[in-house]
Structure formats: structure tokens, C-alpha cells
Design goal:
single chain; alpha/beta; Rossmann fold; four-stranded parallel β-sheet; 14 helices; about 45% helix; Pyridoxal-phosphate dependent enzyme
């Protein structure tokens, strides 16, 4: 059965399609973090994207390709994709339903509802999510926009790669490596397609929590692993790598490294304190990967994708 995989040309088309709707996010630096890493670090700040995450790119790319008569969309999400789809749907005059696990962060549930979606809660597993979404589709006839295993989503997320290559060139340098977090794999797969077309000499590394290492194990074995039970603070990376995503990652990504929970926390607090940027644990996995696998990055020019900034912050006392 054909998987209908996206190509680099689809990423380029997506970049043109979504440009009026999304931010061009900045490429930031931190001398202190570069010194600590022993590398020249650049941070692609997708936590400053619409809805606070790169997910806006894929969601709006998918919605903009729907026929005008399709007025209802649905998905399952731990938060960022749900918020992105709710925003994209509202921006195009559509309604949305988002199935969310009951243990999703409260700030992400509130964001999804705040963008106008109806939230349907379910159990914490991928099987729970998919069953609840199937019920929603059966009852409403909604068009499903998957969170990652979809060529439109992969192409949209890949526009991060298009943008960062252009920004690096404008600054007069070529990165040696790009590091991006991986959960379902939309961001890593899409970035891989972009780099293959624009900067094939640049190596792409995925970073993943050791407590959710299905993509790491899949890439090492050559067989997609769907049996890994996730346990990590990085809630956006608990999902299993998608089938299409794995097929693209296998062809475009050099390696996927794993990081510890303490490493994620330390990296997140460094970004908060040194860069004054509020990122979520999933975003900090990129920096944790550089610190915990330092020999691979030392002396290199490295772009790290900060994927999102939706953190459940307590109210001041």
C-alpha cells in the first residue's frame, strides 16, 4: 500500500501557501549557552510562533487545502496540534473538535478551547485517542487532520527548515547540524525534506526523551516501534512516530539521540534563565541533546529548534 509520502517540493509549496498566516520566527543566539556547549548555537524560536508552537504551520497548511464546503475538522492532540487546528479552522471560517487525553496540561486544554474548538476528553493512550476520534467522526462527519502522520502536516512543519536555512544564509554561515525534537515526527520529517533540498551537506539529528524512545529504537532497528510506553515530562513527545514520518525520517535523518529527564529540566531552566525565553519541556529536548552528547556537537555550528512554549505556569501568589 502506498503511503503517499510528501516530497521536498511539497514543503516549498507549503511555505508559499502559509506565509500570510504564520510568523517568521527569529533565530536567536546565546553566548553563555554556546560557551557551555563548546559549540556555536543558534535557536530557531518556534515557541514564538502562532499558538505558541510550530504546529501552526502544519495545521494551516492542511486546512488551506480543504474544499470550501468542508466546514468541520477534528483531530486528537495532547495540546499544541489541537490549538493549532482550532486556530487554523477559525481563521478559515470552520469549526473544530479536538480529542485530548485527560492528563494533558491544563494550559493546553484551555488554549484549545480558547481558539474555539470543542474539547472531548479521553484516556491517556494513543489507542484511547484514536477510538474517541473515530467516534467523533462517526457522529459528525468531520474531516480528520492528523497531528503528524499526514503529508500536508509534514510539509507544513518542514517550512521551519526552509526558514532557518534562509536565515542562516542571510547571516552568512552554513550550519553543520540541525537538532529538532521528535514525538510523532512531523517536525523532524518535514525539516529533513527541507534540508535535503536546500542544504544536503547539513546533518539533521533528532532528540527524544529516553522515556519515550520509540523513534530512536525504530531508526536503530529499521522497524517502526509502536510498543514503547512513554513516561516523560515532555508531554508533546509522548506520541509514537507516525508511519509516513518514519519513512521520511529513515531517509533524511542521520541519527536520533535520547536524553534524560534531568537533562530536559536543566536545559529548559537554562533557556528560561539565560535567554529569558519561556519554552516547554519538549522544546528543551534539543538543547539537552547537545549537552548530553557533547562530543558530537563540539566546535560545530548548530541550529536547535525550540518547538513550543506552552507551559502550565502557576498564578503568582
Amino acid at each position: 500500500m502506498s503511503l503517499n509520502l510528501p516530497a521536498t517540493e511539497d514543503v516549498f509549496s507549503a511555505a508559499q501557501r502559509i506565509a500570510p498566516f504564520v510568523h517568521e520566527t527569529p533565530l536567536m543566539t546565546s553566548e553563555r549557552l554556546s560557551d557551555l556547549a563548546g559549540a556555536e548555537l543558534y535557536f530557531k524560536c518556534e515557541h514564538l510562533q502562532k499558538v505558541g508552537a510550530f504546529k501552526a504551520r502544519g495545521a494551516v497548511n492542511a486546512v488551506l487545502q480543504l474544499p470550501p464546503e468542508q466546514k468541520l475538522v477534528a483531530t486528537h492532540s495532547s495540546g499544541n496540534h489541537g490549538a493549532a487546528l482550532a486556530w487554523a479552522a477559525a481563521a478559515s471560517g470552520r469549526e473544530s473538535i479536538v480529542v485530548m487525553p485527560e492528563n494533558a496540561p491544563a494550559v493546553k486544554k484551555a488554549a484549545v478551547a480558547g481558539y474555539g474548538a470543542k474539547v472531548v476528553e479521553c484516556g491517556p493512550t494513543l489507542a484511547n485517542r484514536e477510538a474517541a476520534l473515530a467516534d467523533v467522526v462517526s457522529e459528525t462527519g468531520a474531516h480528520v487532520v492528523p497531528p503528524y502522520d499526514d503529508p500536508r502536516i509534514i510539509a507544513g512543519q518542514g517550512t521551519v527548515g526552509v526558514e532557518l536555512v534562509r536565515q542562516c544564509r542571510e547571516r552568512g554561515f552554513v550550519p553543520d547540524l540541525v537538532v529538532a525534537p521528535i514525538g510523532g515526527g512531523g517536525l523532524l520529517a518535514g525539516t529533513g525534506l527541507a534540508l535535503r533540498g536546500l542544504l544536503p551537506e547539513c546533518k539533521l539529528i533528532g532528540a527524544e526523551p529516553a522515556g519515550a524512545a520509540d523513534a530512536h529504537l525504530s531508526l536503530r532497528s529499521g522497524v517502526r516501534r509502536t510498543d514503547v510506553v512513554s513516561n516523560t515530562i515532555a508531554d508533546g513527545l509522548r506520541t509514537t512516530i507516525g508511519e509516513r514520518n518514519f519513512a521520511v525520517v529513515r531517509d533524511t535523518v542521520q541519527d536520533i539521540v535520547t536524553v534524560s529527564e534531568d537533562g530536559i529540566r536543566d536545559a529548559m531552566h537554562l533557556i528560561w534563565s539565560r535567554m529569558k525565553q519561556l519554552v516547554e519541556p519538549s522544546a528543551a529536548v534539543s538543547l539537552a541533546g547537545v549537552f548530553e552528547h557533547a562530543s558530537r556537537f563540539r566546535g560545530k555550528k548548530v541550529v536547535l529548534v525550540l518547538s513550543g512554549g506552552n507551559v502550565d505556569m502557576p498564578a503568582p501568589a
